[in-house]
Amino acid sequence: MQRFSALALARNALSGQTGWQRQWRSPDPAKRYNAIIIGGGGHGLATAFHLARDHGMRNIAVLEKSWIGGGNTGRNTTIIRSNYLFNASSSLYDHAVKLWENLSQTLNYNVMFSQRGVLMLAHNVHDEQVFKRHVHANRLNGVDNEWLTAAQAKAFCPPLRIDAGMRYPVLGAALQRRAGVARHDAVAWGYARAADALGVDIVENCAATSIVRDRQGAVEAVETTRGRIATAKIGVVAAGNTSVIMGMAGLRMPLESFPLQALVSEPVKPVLPCIVMSNTIHAYISQSDKGELVIGAGTDAYISYSQRGALHVSTHTLEAICELFPQFRRMRMLRNWGGIVDVTPDRSPIIAKTSVPGLYVNCGWGTGGFKATPGSGHLFAWTMAKDEPHPINAPFTLERFRDGFLIDEAAAAAVSH
Ligand SMILES: Cc1cc2nc3c(=O)[nH]c(=O)nc-3n(C[C@H](O)[C@H](O)[C@H](O)COP(=O)(O)OP(=O)(O)OC[C@H]3O[C@@H](n4cnc5c(N)ncnc54)[C@H](O)[C@@H]3O)c2cc1C
After folding, report:
1. Element (H or E) spanning 360, and its range?
2. Could you tell me if 146 and 235 lie in one domain?
């Protein structure tokens, strides 16, 4: 792999930028692999990278039905934080934040991780109590989080409106300073490039259409739009399409798939220094390095596989944003889009073995899995390579929905982006 460095930049600047290589190969699928990952989003590519780098596994393929990063990885609002309530969740998400902190160096690819802090606004006494509980629980778990008064929140984020005339006044906010954003495409591309350099075949335009099992019920092959591929290990990392793929192996998943929307404004000069989230009025916003305001809306109220959502959901969000930031009222929205998110009953992910030998699943990240990408890849690769979970993902089983050991982040917060 050609390494990026100041010297390489200078050399290519002098040679008219003609010396750069392709970032990853585009191989035809082989007849057999030691492991196959279905889904070329950030989580799938990170899993392949860790399988190759940490576990020395070779002859691995990532199958992607369209282009890598074209699913939720390239559609999300990139909020990264780890201020979740329960011990299992904060340890899972903080594991990821720690990996984000060095990800550009690990991959030798600038993922533009920017730890600008997330403010989670409290608009009523219930919010205040819930967020203070989060602050205390996080601190006990060694995760940074602090309580700010409304005036302190405004000092941290000057454009925020806090006057008492608001329909939902800001009473205070929880601030996680290590939270941030990253460039989503760069995450997919960086992992693809690093995995490719370790020999992983990234096969785009190759949809899995069937999972073939042998007489004992173990995984034997994947049928794809580019032919049958034999393998004894399959990791399914397909976000909103997980239920469909797991159904190919005869497994019914505790998942519902909804469209979730986001939108961006025209670009403006730097105006918003941090991420602001409001669960109560359902709005979240940050500013990209290009200058666009990146705004997240809610899920549609019904299940669907369409990668767009209803207009009233995004208009509701814009009303909430304008209430918090009246100065943004005159800005134009440039684009809106949707992605299909896979939601579990407790809003926590599943990173686990399944009852089918050789079949593993990483799903249920719902509206908030981008932040977990590096940690998820690391833990899922461990689970696939060793055929047992890492201690951090051990609680995130499929069986918890049968046995009742839920990690109920849905009850802990209205929104989990
Ligand atoms: C609008 C929106 C905003 C969001 N905001 C945030 C946020 O601010 N912070 C956060 O942490 N998370 C956020 N999320 C959630 C986050 O995007 C996802 O949890 C995360 O990106 C999932 O990553 P992934 O790699 O598992 O999925 P994906 O990137 O969706 O990758 C799955 C891949 O599987 C492929 N695939 C599907 N079926 C097949 C098949 N049969 N064969 C081969 N390939 C297949 C798909 O094409 C897709 O590329 C948001 C999501 C959306 C939609």
Report:
1. strand 359-363
2. no
Q: Which amino acid type is present at position 224?
A: T
40 and 57 share one domain: yes
pTM: 0.97
* Among 228, 274, 367, residue to substitute to test ligand 1 (most atoms within 8 Å of Cβ): 367
Pocket probe mutation, ligand 1, options 47, 63, 76, max atoms within 8 Å of Cβ: 76
- How many Å apart are CA 132 and CA 168, to the nearest integer? 18
The share of the chain scoring above pLDDT 90, in percent, equals 93
Give the domain-ending residue among 343, 373, 398.
343
Strands (E), 231-349: 234-236, 256-267, 275-278, 283-287, 292-299, 333-343
Task: State the distance from the centre of ligand 1 to the C-alpha of 396, rounded, in angstroms.
Answer: 18
* Residue 18 placed within a domain: no
Closest CA to 194 of 71, 378, 46: 46
Which tens digit of pLDDT belongs to each residue from 341-388? 999 999 999 999 999 999 999 999 999 999 999 999 999 999 999 999
What CATH number is attached to the domain comprising 363?
Answer: 3.50.50.60
Residue 292 and residue 378 in one domain:
no
**Residue 100: closest CA among 87, 81, 119, 118:** 81
With bands split at pLDDT 50, 70 and 90, how would you rate the model's confidence at 416?
A: low
What is the best residue among 202, 370, 373, 379 to mutate for testing ligand 1's pocket, by most ligand atoms within 8 Å of CB? 370
Residue 327 pLDDT greater than 90, yes or no: yes
- Cα 343 to middle of ligand 1, angstroms: 12
Please tell me the total count of domains within the chain: 2
Query: Would 92 be classed as within a structural domain?
Result: no
